[in-house]
């Protein structure tokens, strides 16, 4: 790995604040355990990719920081804890100061991602100036953003951010690369995502955690509205 190649950055929020949209099916302790398991799957996948210059976690959570150190991932302490975009900006400034060629931002809730997925993304990315995007399957967010140079476009993560990042690249006269990588497109945000994930067994920490927790996908099925029968 070289200091001027692409670094992977994984922002991870505090575990007690993680996955609030799963509150209808998981309590706070379960959500924290799930968030930790997903982060471990993502970090172990990216750390196995030799083509990356390195991996950084940006977090204010001490458990995640300890996990990252155990795996061999660098940690940037997110002391301000001002959200996902602020965390990415903090990492980007650090990488620019160290002369990195590019940045790959991944979320910590794509536990199905594999090293092969990351290699495929980097192969599609090419040389700079370049932008590569993978959209979130459910809400139009951005589940992977690679930029060369690091500040090729402004960061604007959140719902609908795929379109924003795509437009920003075009505004900079960069044609974004859009590889089809289903494992990256499928994040876990909602109960339906949990049910779908459990129907695709995989040797991940996340699957093992959820299997031990509930045993089947049925728990994650949200109650369906009762349709009133109309007499004919």
How would you characterize the overall build of this protein?
By secondary structure, the chain is an alpha/beta fold. The protein contains 8 helices and 6 strands, in the order E-H-E-H-E-H-E-H-E-E-H-H-H-H. It has helices at residues 28-47, 62-71, 84-98, 115-125, 161-171, 182-185, 191-198, 205-214; strands at residues 6-12, 54-59, 74-77, 102-105, 130-135, 142-148. The chain has a 6-stranded mixed beta sheet with strand order 3-2-1-4-6-5, sandwiched between helices. A hairpin with a 6-residue loop joins strand 5 (130-135) and strand 6 (142-148). Helix 1 runs parallel beside helix 2 (62-71) and helix 1 (28-47) runs antiparallel to helix 8 (205-214). The longest helix is centred in the first third of the chain and has 20 residues, at 28-47. Residues 225-232 have low confidence and may be disordered.
The number of helical segments is: 8
- Oligomeric nature of the chains: single chain
Mean pLDDT: 90
Q: Based on helices, strands and strand pairing, what is the structural class?
A: alpha/beta
Major sheet summary line? 6 strands, mixed
Order of H and E elements:
EHEHEHEHEEHHHH
Given as residue ranges, the uncertain stretches (5+ residues, pLDDT < 50) are: 225-232
């Amino acid at each position: 790995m070289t200091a001027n190649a692409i670094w992977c950055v994984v922002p991870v929020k505090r575990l007690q604040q993680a996955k609030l949209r799963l509150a209808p099916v998981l309590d706070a302790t379960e959500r924290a355990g799930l968030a930790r398991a997903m982060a471990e799957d993502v970090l172990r996948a990216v750390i196995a990719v030799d083509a990356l210059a390195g991996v950084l976690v940006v977090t204010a959570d001490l458990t995640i920081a300890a996990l990252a150190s155990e795996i061999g991932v660098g940690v940037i302490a997110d002391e301000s804890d001002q959200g996902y975009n602020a965390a990415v900006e903090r990492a980007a400034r650090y990488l620019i100061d160290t002369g990195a060629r590019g940045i790959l931002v991944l979320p910590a809730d794509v536990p199905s991602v594999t090293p092969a997925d990351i290699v495929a993304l980097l192969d599609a990315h090419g040389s700079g100036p370049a932008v590569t995007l993978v959209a979130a399957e459910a809400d139009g967010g951005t589940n992977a953003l690679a930029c060369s140079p690091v500040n090729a476009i402004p960061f604007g993560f959140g719902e609908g951010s795929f379109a924003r990042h795509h437009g920003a690249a075009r505004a900079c006269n960069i044609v974004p690369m859009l590889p089809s990588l289903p494992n990256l497109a499928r994040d876990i945000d909602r109960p339906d995502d949990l049910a779908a994930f459990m129907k695709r067994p995989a040797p991940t920490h996340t699957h093992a955690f959820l299997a031990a927790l509930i045993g089947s996908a049925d728990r994650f099925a949200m109650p369906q509205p009762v349709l009133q029968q109309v007499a004919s």
